[in-house]
Amino acid sequence: MISTTSSTTEMVTQGKLQINSVDYVEDKTTGRLGCFGWLLVILSLLLITVTFPITIFMCLKIVNEYERAVIFRLGRITDRKPKGPGLFFIVPCTDDFVKVDLRTVSFDIPPQEFLTRDSVTVSVDGVVYFRIYCPISSVANVSNAHLSTRLLAQTTLRNVLGTKNLSELLSDREGISLSMQEALDEATHAWGMKVERVEIKDVKLPIQLQRAMAAEAEASREARAKIIAAEGEMKASRALKEASLVISESPSALQLRYLQTLNTIAAEKNSTIIFPLPIDILQNFMQQK
Q1: What is the mean pLDDT of residues 113-118?
Q2: Cβ contact 98:70 at 8 Å
Q3: Pair 43, 127 in one domain
Q4: Angle at the Cα of 178 (from 176 to 179), degrees rounded to 5?
Q5: Number of structural domains, the chain?
Q6: Is-contact 97 61, C-beta < 8 A?
Q7: What range does the domain containing 71 cover?
Q8: Are 193 and 212 found together in one domain?
């Protein structure tokens, strides 16, 4: 068993060394044109020299401040550094170049319908902001960096939101945006892309679910209102009990309260008729009780 394990480890190690050596050879030979390639380049330079006044306009190219140019010479990238901004020189017969925009690009994620973890059908859309930080990788490693990022953002949105409950989806949008940004940034790193920001724009729920949630919210509000009203009645009864105890201890307090009530009624413009009643009569009834 020990010998088998050691032999397997040696084979894996040798395989890794072979892969690394192949990668090293490929990196080392990248950009080399060979004898025939250099012959074509020299012939192109001679042709440019012969027709100098005319071909100079075909050799000089300009890229803007926010752009970079990736130059291919006979199908190979000549330099691991893009050209620009400003003026640069190419050989018309053997060179070709691709302009890459380095500005931040934004695009809308179309509404995606999916099932949440608690089996609720939801439609969600969003917006993604990204930019190209490595022009060579965005041209050499992927056929269409912008389209690939759009498609990947749609699938990532469905995969991330499919693991969330409806309550988490409605309350934790910032956390979902951060997790989507990290997933997209990691996936597009090999393409020379940097995902700067991901935002969830709108969450659309089914009409039946909206009605059910509205009914639930209304019922909870009514329940809270009844609880508050009951608590108010309880506090008011306690206050009235304490007031009655204070008035019973001082008979003059009842007379003052009576006069204060008459003053309040008289201050308002109404058709209320007041019949004064002697307090002594009320005191006789109170003594009989």
Answers
A1: 84
A2: yes
A3: no
A4: 65
A5: 3
A6: yes
A7: 38-101
A8: no
